[in-house]
Design goal:
This protein has one domain. The protein is about 80% helix and about 0% strand. The chain is built from 9 helices and no strands. Helix 1 packs across helix 9, helix 3 packs antiparallel against helix 8 and helix 4 runs antiparallel to helix 7. The radius of gyration is 19 Å and the shape is globular. About 5% of the residues have low confidence.
């Protein structure tokens, strides 16, 4: 079980470094009713993460993947396809971040710098009007509808199923993976609950750091996950 948890750490961190989720959370935490909406967003993110993971475990269980002594061909093909998708996602994330940095470096006026900076999706500008219900729905949707996060959860479910753990060990691994996955959302929410308005400067710094650094870090991590999964899938086929 311990070895499986170590194998799942890169995949869990792939979910942890979700720039859109963190930026959405920061927008919620600096808006009206930050505490209520922040807790609601956290609940939604936690439900979405656990839901996709459990869905993957259920699907692989229905396919009786846990009963085979050797993974079937389709399981390795699925792993390779997900790895290729994450590889493409890593390239896209890096190119997007690099393009923003290059444009900002070449900007000659303050207006050009602002225009070149990474921009938030337009719908995030309406977060100030959100109530807890919409904040929770946003938390679920950002995870479930993000193909990168969903792919990481499915890869984790695939590895958990193939490990053929007993029920107690499986529950423990799921719990550890889930806790790590929701940690980057939990910590800012708890910080705001404890600090209130005094948390604003820290949230501003977090927003700026995410906007300027997370794309590169996320691309590198997605590349690592993709290579590890690709190597695992190809090794099983060859």
């Amino acid at each position: 079980m311990g070895e499986l948890i170590l194998q799942l750490i890169p995949v869990a961190i792939g979910i942890v470094l979700s720039p859109l989720a963190i930026m959405a959370l920061v927008a919620i935490l600096v808006s009206t009713h930050a505490r209520r909406n922040g807790v609601a967003f956290l609940i939604g993110w936690a439900v979405g993460t656990l839901g996709v993971l459990l869905l993957g475990l259920w699907l692989f269980s229905v396919l009786e993947l846990h009963q085979v002594t050797e993974p079937p061909l389709w399981a390795d093909v699925l792993r390779i396809l997900l790895a290729l998708f994450l590889l493409g996602a890593a390239f896209w994330v890096y190119r997007r971040g690099h393009a923003h940095v290059k444009a900002m470096a070449e900007a000659t006026t303050p207006q050009a710098v602002v225009a070149a900076a990474p921009q938030l999706p337009g719908w995030l500008q309406t977060i100030s009007t959100f109530r807890p219900g919409r904040s929770a729905a946003l938390g679920v949707g950002i995870f479930v509808l993000n193909p990168v996060d969903a792919s990481c959860a499915l890869l984790a479910a695939l590895d958990m199923t193939l490990a053929r753990l007993d029920t107690g060990s499986l529950v423990a691994v799921v719990a550890v993976f889930w806790i790590v996955s929701i940690l980057p959302i939990t910590l800012p929410v708890v910080y705001v609950l404890l600090r209130g308005p005094a948390a604003q400067p820290s949230l501003d710094r977090l927003r700026d750091w995410v906007a300027t650094h997370t794309n590169v870090l996320n691309a590198a991590l997605l590349l690592v996950i993709a290579v590890l999964q690709l190597q695992k899938g190809l090794s099983a086929l060859l």
